[in-house]
């Protein structure tokens, strides 16, 4: 079962790449069943923040991470933690979709085959369930055996979302999941997110301020590796407290 209290507590998170100090003393509480958008100009540490939460940061040789991240009471940065389990519970969808080199069906069935089926659904029902959640079912239901590589980029993006969801994570981290998508596909993904937040905690790096304003329940504004302001989306986009936030959301830089 998905736990509804899953919440991410970040305290004094610092990340260095070699001599570069990318994230500086980030402390933030990310609530359950909400969409929290991480906004800020390019290079301010947003992707690094997502990768720290599910330990994909470990794959960067140069990275040094300190501070504390607790997810549902699990101390993610603890050296003894089971990283595979952390990454199962916290799905990260990268900006470039990378479907597995197999059929549409097998992409989604992959996780359930490895981790076992839950909820009493058959594999076919499971695949359909997650393709529906990702807003892709209607477009692919008649060609589930086709190679995933044959899908458009927008469809591949949603297929990767379905594949991530099929691992039954509690938290979904999304790094610009609609970059390069047409407005229709973008709308489909944004609508899916509204549906998904009923069952998951979502942290999103949006591809534009407009997208953040449309979907974010909460928004965190990062600038040069620091957290400048963190507030409900409505406040950040209409009445920010910090002049730097105002400059950014008004489009004066970034």
Poorly predicted runs of 5 or more residues = none
- Main beta sheet, described? 6 strands, mixed
Shape: globular
Q: What is the mean pLDDT?
A: 91
Put simply, the count of helices is 10
CATH class of the domain at 8-100 and 170-249: Alpha Beta
Per CATH, the superfamily of the domain at 8-100 and 170-249 is P-loop containing nucleotide triphosphate hydrolases
Radius of gyration, Cα only, in angstroms? Answer: 18 Å
Question: What fraction strand?
Answer: 25-35%
Structural class: alpha/beta
**Helix content estimate:** 25-40%
Q: Gap between N and C termini, in Å?
A: 40 Å
Name its key features.
254 residues; 4-stranded antiparallel sheet; globular; 10 helices; alpha/beta; 10 strands; 35% helix; 25% strand; 6-stranded mixed sheet; Rossmann fold
Q: Can you tell me about this structure?
A:
This protein is an alpha/beta fold and 254 residues long. It has a domain at 8-100 and 170-249: Rossmann fold, CATH 3.40.50. It is 35% helix and 25% strand. The protein has helices at residues 46-53, 83-89, 104-115, 123-133, 137-140, 153-165, 183-196, 209-215, 233-238, 243-249, and strands at residues 8-17, 20-30, 35-39, 63-71, 74-75, 90-93, 171-175, 201-205, 218-223, 226-232. A six-stranded mixed β-sheet has the order 6-7-8-3-9-10, sandwiched between helices. Strands 2-1-4-5 form a four-stranded antiparallel β-sheet, covered by helices on one side. The radius of gyration is 18 Å and the shape is globular. The termini are far apart. The model has no long low-confidence stretch (mean pLDDT 91).
